[in-house]
Amino acid sequence: MADSPAVLHCSGDEDRSTQSLRRPALSRALAVNEDLTVDFTGLEFADTSLMLDLVMIARRLRAAGHAMLLRRAAPQILTLIEIVGLDRLDGVEFDRRPAATA
């Protein structure tokens, strides 16, 4: 996670087995006192455990008067975001333009 502006970078594969490894970054995301951008550049695979973690952060941000911006998601991640409904939460903005491919 970058310091300013607040950006949470998601990359590689994120699933239930990696949940404990992302806890430090999620804790830092919960502590921000500003809008948070979630950058999915390089995220190849994710399951619902990551999306549910992001739902929790989005709700806490909204309660504190801040927003979450989702950006640069690959097509398979876009689909997962829509299935889970993360994009429909109040306070979540979703840039639906897919990540650039190499």
From TrEMBL:
Region (Disordered): 1-20
Domain STAS: from-to ranges: 1-102
Listed SUPFAM superfamilies: SpoIIaa-like
InterPro entries: MlaB-like_STAS (IPR058548), STAS_dom (IPR002645), STAS_dom_sf (IPR036513)
Protein's recorded name: Unannotated protein
Phylogenetic classification of the source organism: unclassified sequences, metagenomes, ecological metagenomes
